[in-house]
Structures are given as C-alpha cells and as structure tokens.
Design a protein that fits this description.
This protein is mostly beta strands. 1% of the residues lie in helices and 57% in strands.
Length: 282
C-alpha cells in the first residue's frame, strides 16, 4: 500500500559500538527501519558449579542497532523497538546430613534509545522514557537436605558392660536399639534442581521530542545481564579434619541473549500539550 510522501530509508546494521558512528548521507525520510535476523546477539553468561562456600559471579554485555533519519525543525520522532529476549536460569543444591544452601540465578535484557547528530557520538539525546527492561527473571532454590541413607548399623558407641571402650581387647558392642543417622549410617548425597528456559518477543515505544532540524543516527542500545550466586548456611556445615565442607554444595547459572530485532523510526508531529510525564491515577 502506498503512503503519500513516505520513503523507506536504507537499513544499516552494526555489531559493536565504537568510537565513531558510520557516516553516510541519509535520505530525507519520514520513516526509517533496520533489523537483523541473526540470533543470538549480545549474550551474557554466568556460572557457579558445586560451590561449598559463598560465591557470586556476574556478567553483562552491550550491543546496538542503528538507523538514520532526516528531521525538519521542531518535529518529534516515534521510535519502536522490538526484540526477542532469551533467558535461561538453572539452580541445584546437593547435600546430606542437614546441609542447607541457596542457589540463585538471574538473567535479563534491557534497551535504551539515543539520538546523535549523524556521524557523531557527542551531544546524545536519550528518548523518553529512558532505559526500559524488556525481560528479567530471578530464580532462587532454597533447600535443606538429609541425604539418602544407604546402610545403618546399631551400635552403642560407648563402654560395654565390662567397662571396656571401643578398640579395647575384649570389647563387646551391645546395640541399644536406637539409630543415630550421622554416626551409625552411611549416607550419600541427594540433589534437587530447577531449570527455566524462555524465549519471548517484546516491544516498546519511545519518543524523541522537539528535535532540531538535521540528520540523526538513532541507536537502540541493548544490555544483557546474567548472575549466578551460591549462599551456604554455615551453621549446617559438617567439616572434615582439613576444615573442608563435606555435606552441602550448590550450583547456579544464568544466561541472557538478544535475538532478532527491529528498530523503526517515524517522524511525527505531536498535538500541543500531549507530551507529558504524569502519574497513573487509581
């Protein structure tokens, strides 16, 4: 369908934000767009494996998409950003004999739209409403584990009727009919885990108001972040002779990525007084 006085601007893609923006002559346009069909892009990953003490690992990445548009005096730009955001969070706790721990995984993706005079990275103007979180998740697994009882043997563990101690010649071990798991049983680790993997498409509109006449490079700057954390309950740890934790450990991992994206820019004229930052009234 034809739209009067409209022209689709050339799409320009880039991979890494550098010290200077690519310079080219932009057509005089009321609409511009750029997109990519590659996936994944802008990937963050963090992982902690079988930690027996408190650990925190975090990672974040930045990337961008760019298009250029020519603007007359005192016009507004309506910018639409669409993106696939993939999040993976994985947590597990392994232990026995009352060991307790938390495994925490996080992942998220956000975007910020900024306009720069064409060919420059100075005097940038952020679009309203500023940075926007497209998707985010925090996953926490909290567990106290008794372990899997493999074998038990009832023993007194003390002096016998003759007053002899374990290890003495002639010692007679007389069971007392009670089982103390930590002392009289062979216990192996049990493990529980939770993993979530999601991929969804998200869209958000931005506004650049009262633009001076000129050509502008419009950047959609994407941020991804991932975190992995293990929090061991030190009051439940059983230590060996070398002061090593023997009964509880945890693992966590987080991953976030940006997939396919679309950046659209449309030159518009806002109704007088229609651009306002107001609270929602209940």
């Amino acid at each position: 369908m034809k739209v009067k006085h409209s022209l689709l601007a050339s799409a320009v893609s880039a991979a890494i934000l550098s010290a200077s923006a690519p310079a080219f002559a932009a057509p005089s346009a009321k609409f511009a767009a750029t997109w990519n069909t590659d996936s994944p892009n802008v990937v963050s990953m963090a992982e902690v494996t079988d930690a027996t003490s408190d650990v925190l690992v975090a990672d974040w990445k930045v990337g961008y998409k760019l298009t250029t548009i020519k603007v007359p005096q005192d016009k507004e730009l309506l910018v639409g950003v669409s993106a696939e955001i993939g999040l993976t969070t994985d947590t597990s706790v392994k232990g026995k004999n009352g060991g307790s721990a938390k495994a925490i995984a996080g992942a998220g993706g956000a975007v910020l739209v900024v306009a720069f005079p064409a060919g420059s990275l100075a005097d940038g103007k952020p679009a309203h409403p500023g940075p926007v979180v497209l998707s985010r998740r925090i996953q926490e697994l909290d567990a106290t584990l008794g372990g899997v009882i493999e074998e038990c043997e009832d023993t007194t563990g003390g002096t016998d009727e003759a007053g002899l101690n374990p290890g003495d010649e002639g010692y007679v071990d007389t069971p007392d009919g009670k089982i103390t798991v930590a002392i009289e049983c062979i216990v192996s680790d049990e493990e529980i885990g939770l993993m979530l993997d999601t991929l969804a498409s998200h869209h958000f509109n931005f506004v650049l108001s009262d633009m001076d006449a000129g050509e502008y490079d419009i950047y959609a700057v994407f941020f991804t972040g991932a975190s992995a954390e293990v929090d061991i309950d030190e009051t439940t740890i059983i230590f060996d002779d070398e002061n090593e934790n023997t009964n509880i450990s945890a693992s966590a991992s987080g991953k976030a990525f940006v997939g396919k994206t679309m950046l659209t820019v449309q030159q518009v004229r806002a109704v007088k007084g229609s651009l306002a930052d107001v609270d929602i009234i209940e």
